[in-house]
Specification:
- With about 100 residues, the chain is mainly alpha-helical.
- Helices cover about 55% and strands about 0% of the residues.
Length: about 100
């Protein structure tokens, strides 16, 4: 598998797909088949997609390595309902060009 750089553009497209699922907060936009877990992220991407995800969600990534990674996921950091609402709002703003 050739590694690619995880960008905001890739993140936005994957968030759109994830939001169509019944339980979007049980997935990871950067994960293989949207599964959570760091193994695929480390294999597939040349950079840390969690930084892009946190930026999209509107906060800075936690520091502290792999142990804190789950705490920084937007669904846990912001709460499921708030994160889903924020993601949909952000996608509408992007679509409008804001």
């Amino acid at each position: 598998m050739k590694k690619r750089r995880y960008t905001m553009k890739i993140h936005i497209e994957r968030v759109k797909k994830l939001l169509k699922k019944d339980t979007p907060c049980k997935g990871c936009p950067a994960g293989q088949d949207f599964k959570t877990g760091s193994v695929f992220r480390a294999v597939a991407w040349t950079n840390d997609p969690c930084n892009i995800c946190a930026k999209f969600a509107g906060y800075r990534q936690y520091r502290g390595g792999e142990q804190s990674r789950g705490k920084q996921c937007p669904c846990l950091h912001l709460g499921k309902a708030k994160n889903i609402a924020n993601a949909r709002k952000k996608l509408r703003e992007i679509k409008r060009g804001n």
